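chain below, 296 aa
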Amino acid sequence: MLWMVAALTILVSGVLYSVRVDTRVASGHLERARATALLDGALRLAAAELAASPNVPVKPLQLIYKVGEAEIAVDVALASGFIHLNTAPETLLTDLFAHAAALPPDQAATLAQRLIDWRDADEDRAPVGAERAEYEAQGLTYVPRNEHLRRPDDAGQVLGLVAGVYDSIRDLVTTAGTGGDGTVNPLVAPEAVLAVLARGDQARARELVAMRQAGVEQTLDVTSLGLAHASAWTGRDYRLRATYRSHEAEEWSRAAWVSLEGAMQRHSSRLPWRWLYAEELRRIVEPAEQWTKASH
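prediction:
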């Protein structure tokens, strides 16, 4: 009799544990769906507000939206402050991989050439690049498209550009718009991009951010900053990054790229902006939580 009671106790404990796990999973899915809806709504509200503004913003700004009890912050930045994967020259891509992803110079140069081989129209391999033969030799089921990347995460298919490397550069890059002439506007670039333009000089990047915050950039000549691949071009393409903290104290984020460049005329759209692409929803993990997970 005792063994039957013990067995039933174990069985009931297992069922209760399974129910708790299922409840947590369901709650997680619900919270993710809620975050997606709130962030996507805020991104579209921000796009509409930008399109309706008589003065198209150049300097980075933040817009705040309230939906019920939720508060969503949307950071707005010109796409010209990011490194364009389709037009950036080899030297800038090499600096990107060397300073943002902390790769050795030879590995950074290899990835830069492989990315260019992926995006250019020919099948001529760069000295340390990769074309069809190199992909087939690695047993991959795909080969370079020999066309521009549609989204930044397409770069994850480039031979050797592993997830960890892409994670290091994804907040610094774009494929929105034409990309100008492959240069970056340091007057609107994030600090991490400035560090790449300054070839790893973090102090110089912080100095430039401080100058912008003080309003000094209005009197600056971009060519006098001593940065590689810099110009004052702006354009009308933007990155919108929405952030929201849930009731469970989880922080969620999503970025979208939009264009205000003649959307209605060029794309038969009824909206005064064009939705270029949206990045995946991200749950922002606090450093303490990352340490806790790593310690298990």
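The two ends are 39 Å apart (CA to CA). Confidence is low (pLDDT under 50) at residues 14-23, 287-296.
thats it, cya
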